[in-house]
Design brief:
The chain is mainly beta. The chain is built from no helices and 24 strands. It folds into three domains: 48 residues, no CATH class; 113 residues, no CATH class; 130 residues, Jelly Rolls (Sandwich), CATH 2.60.120.
């Protein structure tokens, strides 16, 4: 059979099953090609406290983010037999959490807690107490989050919200209640923002079945109801003197041997000078009983209680007992309520005529409020 061969001419189209070349081939090659691919991470933008691995290239990217808030701290001090105490906790915060305990470590609730300054707190109890106080500041530890992404990361966020509340009641021959709330919220987005609020309300009612001692002044708003018993005022300023007998002529201040002291509360009455000096400002009940020295005296007679007498018949009359000439009266009395300032005085003075002041006669003064 003849050995046929294909001859390829320029400008023609040919198809060959195989091509064997010896000693090389020469010619020109023309062609086009394209390749496209999408995927991978080209760039990651990280905020503060965020770390990336890797930052460029293909494949998964791990993002680590963390936020750290201040840690909690506290301080403790003791108090002894006091109803009001200043706690120097030095925590440098206006809103610490304050708790108090007695000497047996039982929690007690104060009547009031005043956050005086960032470093001091005033604690007040309804009665004297001894024990311990604790001031503390809450905190949140480090928080971390890890995640993997194949997209471009531009930000991360972290948020926390929490609330704290307490309600309690305390009874000590009465009742005490307190309610308070505390909240904090924070967010992180390339930075941090924190807000906090604190509220407290309290009320106290004491049935007064125990003794209460007060020094100074006590201010009350409202009313006091006494269902049984009474209010007493020991050593309320008061005195009473009686006469020693004998006639007294004008102008004479009744004092000294003319008088006998029946009783005295306080030290307002001076028997030597016959003078009462008001130790308290207020109203005083003043009483006087006397007798004429003669029923045939040819002139009138007067015994006067003067306010702020400085000699003779000076001062302001508070009570005047007057007898006419040749009077038929014997023992006569009078009373009044005088308003005195601290240091004001009262004296009995025979202003006109003659007066008898014996054991049946008396002069008394009592503070009534």
């Amino acid at each position: 059979m003849p050995n046929w061969k294909k001859v390829i001419l320029s400008g023609s189209t040919a198809s060959l099953n195989s091509l064997t070349v010896s000693n090389g081939i020469t010619g020109s090659l023309f062609g086009t090609a394209s390749y496209a691919s999408n995927g991978g991470v080209t760039q990651i933008v990280a905020g503060t406290n965020v770390s990336l691995s890797p930052t460029t290239g293909l494949g998964a990217v791990t993002i680590n983010a963390s936020v750290t808030f201040g840690q909690g701290t506290n301080t403790t001090a003791s108090f002894s037999n006091t109803a009001s105490w200043v706690f120097n906790h030095n925590l440098s915060t206006q809103y610490p959490i304050i708790q108090t305990y007695d000497l047996n470590y039982n929690q007690i609730i104060p009547q009031s807690i005043t956050l005086t300054s960032p470093n001091t707190t005033t604690i007040t109890f309804p009665t004297n107490e001894s024990g311990y106080a604790v001031a503390s500041v809450g905190g949140v530890g480090t928080s971390a989050a890890t995640a993997s992404y194949v997209l471009q990361a531009v930000s991360s966020s972290y948020s926390i919200s929490s609330s704290y509340s307490i309600s309690a009641s305390y009874s000590r021959s009465g009742s005490y209640s307190v309610s308070s709330s505390y909240s904090v919220s924070a967010s992180y987005y390339g930075g941090s923002v924190a807000t906090a609020s604190f509220a407290s309300t309290a009320s106290y009612v004491n049935s007064l079945t125990q003794n209460i001692a007060a020094t100074g002044s006590v201010l009350l708003s409202g009313s006091i109801s006494i269902t049984s018993g009474s209010i007493t005022m020991p050593d309320r300023p008061a005195f009473r003197v009686t006469g020693a007998g004998g006639g007294k002529v004008a102008v004479t201040t009744l004092s000294g041997s003319y008088l006998n002291v029946d009783y005295q509360q306080g030290s307002g009455w001076n028997n030597t000078s016959g003078t009462f000096t008001a130790p308290l400002a207020g109203l005083y009940q003043v009483n006087l009983i006397t007798r004429t020295n003669s029923n045939s005296l040819g002139t009138i007679s007067q015994l006067i209680v003067f306010k702020n007498n400085t000699g003779g018949t000076t001062g302001t009359p508070q009570i005047m007992i007057e007898y006419g000439t040749s009077t038929s009266m014997n023992h006569v009395g009078g009373s009044t309520i005088s308003k005195l300032a601290v240091g004001d005085t009262l004296k009995m003075v025979v202003a006109v005529g003659e007066i008898s002041f014996d054991q049946n006669d008396n002069f008394s003064v009592a503070y009534i409020g």
